[in-house]
Recover the amino acids of this structure.
């Protein structure tokens, strides 16, 4: 875990006091049929773990479906809920800057697996560094691009090949702490990987039907770099101009430039996200004279029963929505 730790907005003293009145968990684990207790940082990662672990695991997602890991603020009950996890899975400190301190406060010393360690991440970029500013000698946008992601983009799940790499890391992590079920984890991982490979092929086939000049994305925040890089799209711009949804409101100058870019590109639609209020994107769409497409699932799964309540469902829905909107349907 990173030494660059900070606790979201609550002091350690409050957490320690809360944990002091919670039951003490037994650190010895019986070798029985009780599912392995596993913690995942957020809903997409929890879904991957469930697919690999199957009935052998009991998975808790710290940030629930529909929740925003960027702005999550763990309370004492959430900290206490992870004290008996046998293994903890996370994307990496750039996505869950609150997690390291949360785990420390819980007293849990279980293995900690960061998925981003198993892939080659993309470098973080600031999508509002427009060429127009350079041409006109303008100063850099006033919008604050500060975020806690470091030098890499943590939104790795946009590329299904990264999900496949994550599945292997999850399998290895589960097998290490629960070798008795290693064969089951391997079988489940193989089956889920086959589904992900089919998903990847389907995404490529659908994106290829979009007119090439329309393969451009405008979204709420910068979460689609991996998706765009893998499937042949361009991230034209984002409303918040940041990798994090914690970014402050964009300046009027930023919005005006983004609207101009949208109009010049000729794209028929832009996109809101399930973790961000769509009002800003609706305003931008209205000003640019384009459609606001149905909301995409980005940094969280949807609630149970929605099109995006699993990773495969989310990616399938997003791709169908993007394909239809950018094809002008």
């Amino acid at each position: 875990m990173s030494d660059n730790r900070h606790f979201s907005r609550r002091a350690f003293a409050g957490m320690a006091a809360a944990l002091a009145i919670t039951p003490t968990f037994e650190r010895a684990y019986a070798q029985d049929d009780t599912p392995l207790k596993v913690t995942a940082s957020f809903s997409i990662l929890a879904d991957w773990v469930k697919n690999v672990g199957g009935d052998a695991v009991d998975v808790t997602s710290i940030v629930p479906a529909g929740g925003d890991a960027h702005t999550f603020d763990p309370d004492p009950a959430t900290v206490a809920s992870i004290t008996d996890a046998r293994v903890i899975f996370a994307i990496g400190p750039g996505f869950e800057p609150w997690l390291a301190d949360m785990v420390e406060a819980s007293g849990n010393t279980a293995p900690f697996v960061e998925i981003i360690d198993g892939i080659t991440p993309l470098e973080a970029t600031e999508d509002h560094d427009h060429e127009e500013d350079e041409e006109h000698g303008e100063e850099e946008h006033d919008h604050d691009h500060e975020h806690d992601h470091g030098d890499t983009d943590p939104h790795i799940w946009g590329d299904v090949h990264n999900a496949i790499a994550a599945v292997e890391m999850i399998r290895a992590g589960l097998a290490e702490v629960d070798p008795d079920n290693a064969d089951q984890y391997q079988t489940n991982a193989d089956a889920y990987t086959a589904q992900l490979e089919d998903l990847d092929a389907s995404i490529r086939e659908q994106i290829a039907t979009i007119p090439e000049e329309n393969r451009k994305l405008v979204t709420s925040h910068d979460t689609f770099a991996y998706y765009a890089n893998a499937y042949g799209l361009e991230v034209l711009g984002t409303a918040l101009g940041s990798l994090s949804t914690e970014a402050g409101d964009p300046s009027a100058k930023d919005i005006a430039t983004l609207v101009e870019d949208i109009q010049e590109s000729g794209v028929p639609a832009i996109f809101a996200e399930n973790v961000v209020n769509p009002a800003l994107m609706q305003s931008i769409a209205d000003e640019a004279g384009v459609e606001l497409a149905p909301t995409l699932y980005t940094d969280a799964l949807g609630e149970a029963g929605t099109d995006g309540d699993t990773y495969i469902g989310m990616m399938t829905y997003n791709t169908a929505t993007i394909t239809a909107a950018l094809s002008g349907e």
